[in-house]
Amino acid sequence: MDILEELWYGNITPTEYSRIENNANYKEALSLVNKNQEQLKATLTDEQNELLEKLLTASEEFANIIELDSFKVGFKLGVRLTIEAYT
Length: 87
Prior knowledge:
The chain has helices spanning 3-8, 24-43, 46-86. It is mostly helical.
C-alpha cells in the first residue's frame, strides 16, 4: 500500500508525528492556562461557569478549524514544492 492509500484509509495521522507535548514552552503555557481557568471557575457562579464552558468549547472548535486549514495549506505547499523539484 502506498502512502496516499495509507493516508486515505486513516492508517497515517499527521498528528501522531507531533512532538508538541514534549515542548517545554507548550507544557508551561498549558499549565498556565489550566491554572488560570481553575482559578476563574472558582470565582464564578454556576451560570457564569456554564457560559465559560460554552466559550471554551467554541474556542476549541475555532482552533480546530484553523488547524485544519493550516494543515491543508501546508500539505498543498509540500505538494507544490515536490512538483517544482521534479520539473
